[in-house]
Design brief:
Elements: H1 2-9, H2 11-20, E1 25-29, E2 33-34, H3 74-77, H4 80-88, E3 91-94, E4 101-106, H5 109-118, E5 123-126, E6 131-136, E7 142-146, E8 149-152, E9 158-159, E10 169-170, H6 173-186, H7 209-224, H8 230-245, H9 253-265, H10 270-284
Parallel strand pairs: 6-10
Antiparallel strand pairs: 1-2, 1-3, 3-9, 4-6, 4-8, 5-6, 7-8
Helix pairs in contact: 7-8, 7-9, 8-10
């Protein structure tokens, strides 16, 4: 127990030290996940997320909103609410993109071997199962760009595991190309999935097909850009689409298939897609 307390006591000083060097930090709870939103922020009731361009930026004193809660403000980090979170925390995390960095997360020995053969040498940090390769420069984050490899930069968080070794290199095109090429590979498999028939036969409120097309494209983008809590993001996106388009006859099986394809490209199973869709319909009474 004493050892655990000592470890946790180091979280706050480490966080403050990182913040002083310009690295936005946040606490992680058990399971290497951020602290959940408090009641005032549940379901985005606060009106927005910190560090995001949404109306009504959140002023909640708690470390809510996952990666977006990361901050360099020492007054916030050492505030009473955050201090209680640090005591309960299992690790310190940081927002790589907010610090102008990109982390190539290599999750196993095969991924490390691939990186050593393929990517430019840079600063490396050992992890429990592999390595983090740190590059100077930010980019869009992406999961599972190849077996055992994730990219964590903007809109993502990574555990702080120390400075590692080596000299940090500038973000190479080889890493950027991984995120660009990933969606085309990932979306090829789910085409055979059976999607539930869309519901609704009410009067269509949409004046042009472009309105529906824009809505589906935005929903696909929202799912694709989800970097954490993918299950919840898929459900909320399905709920938003159905609340707007689910009561008339304009939503087709092709539209639903596009949403399911985007969700499966993020690692969701066909069963989870169907369950999320059904639950969203049930909640809306469709």
């Amino acid at each position: 127990m004493t050892q655990l307390t000592d470890i946790r006591a180091e979280h706050l000083p480490a966080a403050l030290s990182l913040a002083a060097s310009g690295v936005p930090v946040l606490p992680l709870r058990a399971g290497k996940v951020p602290f959940g939103n408090c009641r005032r922020c549940a379901d985005n009731a606060c009106g927005g997320r910190p560090n995001m361009k949404t109306p009504g930026p959140c002023t909640c004193p708690s470390p809510c909103h996952g990666w977006a809660a990361a901050t360099t403000d020492p007054d916030v980090i050492s505030s009473g609410v955050w201090r209680r979170a640090w005591v309960r925390a299992s690790a310190v995390a940081y927002h790589p993109g907010g610090a102008g960095l990109t982390v190539v997360d290599l999750d196993n020995a095969d991924a490390v071997t691939w990186a050593r053969r393929t990517l430019p040498a840079t600063q490396t940090v050992p992890t429990t199962r592999g390595e983090h390769w740190l590059y100077l420069g930010s980019m869009s984050s992406a999961n599972a760009v190849r077996p055992g490899v994730d990219i964590k930069s903007t809109m993502a968080y990574a555990r702080w595991l120390g400075f590692g070794s080596g000299t940090m290199a500038y973000l190479p095109d080889a890493v950027r190309a991984l995120a660009v090429s990933k969606p085309a590979r990932a979306r090829s498999a789910p085409q055979a999935v059976t999607v539930p028939a869309p519901s609704g036969s009410g009067e269509c409120r949409h004046r042009t097909p472009a309105y529906l097309e824009r809505g589906i494209a935005m929903a696909e983008q929202r799912i694709t850009e989800a970097c954490e809590a993918v299950h919840a993001s898929v459900y909320r996106t399905f709920l938003a689409v159905l609340s707007t388009h689910g009561r008339c006859g304009c939503l087709t099986e092709a539209h639903v298939a596009r949403l399911f394809t985007a969700a499966q490209a993020k690692g969701e199973s066909p069963r989870h897609c169907t369950d999320a869709w059904t639950n969203a319909r049930t909640r809306l009474g469709l």
